[in-house]
Amino acid sequence: MGGGGSTRRVTFEADENENITVVKGVRLSDSVIDRMKEPSSPGRQHRGSGAVNDEELKKRIAEELALERARRDSEAQKRRLKQEQMYVRDEFGKLLERERISSNEHLTRAILRERAATEEERQKAQRFARQLEEKDRELKKHDAYYKEQLARLEERVKPFF
């Protein structure tokens, strides 16, 4: 509010009653707007008539509004992009989870198949071991029988030799 010029930029827009308001939330009264439209104080020079200032002011306001709308649109697009990224991340996470579950299921099935095959091989080995033991007993039985027969034959042949 001193003699130096302000470097702060203020954006204006028109409200529903065609009254000018400051976007940052500060409302300007009609008297302040009228004073802004009036020629500057005697110490300052005024550029042209009030009609030119009105047109220039309207043009600047329209430009500022367009810039503000563009900024809002850009922010809205950024928000949409972030939402879409989050959606894609969520979907990708769900897909990875489904793949992990599917992989675990395949692995579990493969393990079960291997366990079943191992059990089947163990049972087959036990069956072959029993069969081998049975054949071994049978051979021992035959061996004992033939030894007995041989001993009898030797007893019968002893008188001749």
TrEMBL record:
Question: Per its UniProt entry, which superkingdom is the organism in?
Answer: Eukaryota
Please verify whether the record's keywords include Hydrolase.
Answer: no
Where is the protein situated, by its record's location annotation? Mitochondrion inner membrane
Keywords of the record: Disulfide bond, Lipoprotein, Membrane, Mitochondrion, Mitochondrion inner membrane, Myristate
For this entry, list what GO says about its biological process: inner mitochondrial membrane organization
Pfam families linked to this entry: MIC19_MIC25 (PF05300)
The record gives the membrane topology as: Lipid-anchor
* The keyword Transmembrane helix is assigned to this record: no
Q: Where is this region: Disordered?
A: 29-57
Which Gene Ontology terms of cellular component type are present? Answer: MICOS complex
Instruction: Return the PANTHER family for the record.
Output: COILED-COIL-HELIX-COILED-COIL-HELIX DOMAIN CONTAINING 6, MICOS COMPLEX SUBUNIT MIC19
The protein depicted here goes by the name: MIC19 protein
User: Could you tell me which species this protein originates from?
Assistant: Machaerirhynchus nigripectus
- List the lineage, top down: Eukaryota, Metazoa, Chordata, Craniata, Vertebrata
